[in-house]
Amino acid sequence: MKRVCMRFALRPAARWAHTAVTADDIAAFKGIVGEAAVATEDLEKYSQCWLGRFKGECPAVVRPRNAEEVSAILKHCNERGIAVVPQGGNTGLVGGSVPTGGE
């Protein structure tokens, strides 16, 4: 069996220019999921991986309860050009759920 050595050059991911979250967006999120399901303070635990290796920051955390709320939030964000970082249990090892670009 012949061995093949492959090398890949990793280049930085292209960043999508996104719109900053405004007070009007926060109000829209609260209108969709309710005030208790939108957080804008004490977001550190959502802005870093559980290992503490990757850290970022985010303007808000929205916790929809069902598919309809997820759909409405994503529709609003898409229409406004707001970046979204989905986060489940935040237990990954590569930092994929950490908002590193102001999302």
Q: Any idea what the radius of gyration is? A: 17 Å
How many strands, what sense, and barrel or not for the largest sheet?
Answer: 2 strands, antiparallel
Unreliable spans are 5-12
User: How much helical structure, as a percent, in the residues?
Assistant: 10-25%
Distance between the termini: 47 Å
Number of helices: 2
Name the shape in a single word: globular
Describe the structure.
The protein has 103 residues and is mostly helical. 24% of the residues lie in helices and 4% in strands. It has helices at 23-33, 67-80, and strands at residues 38-39, 61-62. The radius of gyration is 17 Å and the shape is globular. The chain starts with 22 loop residues before the first helix and ends in a 23-residue tail after the last helix. Mean pLDDT is 76; it is low at 5-12.
Short description:
The chain has two helices and two strands.
Can you tag this structure with a few keywords?
single chain; 103 residues; mainly alpha; 2 helices; globular
What is the topology?
Blueprint: H1 23-33, E1 38-39, E2 61-62, H2 67-80
Antiparallel strand pairs: 1-2
